[in-house]
Design brief:
352 residues, alpha+beta, five-stranded antiparallel β-sheet, 31% helix, transmembrane, respiratory chain, electron transport, cell membrane, transmembrane helix
Length: 352
Amino acid sequence: MSSQDIPEENLPVEQDHAHGAVKVADEENPFADPGLPPHEHRIQDIDERAAKRSERTVALLFTVSMLATVGFIASYVTIDVDQSVYVFPIGHISGLNFALGLTLGLALFTIGAGAVHWARTLMSDVEVADERHAIEATPEVKAKVLADFKQGAKESALGRRKLIRNTMFGALALFPLSGVMLLRDLGPLPGTKLRHTTWAKGKKLVNMNTGEPLRPSDVVVGSLTFAKPDGLEEHDHDFQKNIAKDALMIVRIQPGDIKDKQELDWSYQGIVAFSKICTHVGCPISLYEQQTHHVLCPCHQSTFDLADGGRVIFGPAGHALPQLQITVGEDGYLEAVGDFQEPVGPAFWERG
């Protein structure tokens, strides 16, 4: 069906939006304004059935966007992060990443495609020419802009095309849920995990370098030894997570040089065990000055006195290094009396 087949009174009304256009060149205006080409009506402008088809197409695209968003959420929840799929010609890739990318891309694309199809087939396509004007708008211009906006809103048929309106609102309302689901990567609430380590009563102190349990004779005055709990191996799945809290510094100090009574009580013949994790931002401490018994964090130069309860004597650290109470077991090896009595590492907001 063409515009020639439609009675003149049924065709959309054309408005002349040109202002002061010069059709013929003369001495005062040597360049003629060719004006806008004749407007051709679209099939949707003259056939309501075609308009309905376009409306259903746009609604379908918005609905697909909603379904893709639901698929994104379902993929995020159900697909294991370690699962892989084969995609030709790429090869094996992460199944979770593939599903998330596919559904998120589809959700975005169909929202955009629906908006473009709506604009090209159902909104007014009449080109409007207007004269340039000063940056500061006059009251008349403001009134005209407001009138044009109202006219554009009316021509968009948002109120009349309820199917498009409702599906668009549905797609736009569901899509942000994809971002909300990403909050899952923040992980579960820590609970009391930050307050405890794997140290427990009877756990042997194992040399980090040799992998052998430590005897008192293995720790000499002036030496610095790093230890981990017995049973914690580097090939364990959660090794890095645990060693970040379990790592110990073992030093031997003459009992008479220990200034803190609790430190002396928790030591064994001058052998003391302190957390290796700096209480500032969690860096591993590794620099030991044997004459003063000070240890230095290489990240921000927090300095702790291992002869005085691990207290802070310099730097940004907020509290002393936690000490692990140790003793010697029946087999002659150094072992823990229990877990740390306070959380290791940096402070956190709910720490009492």
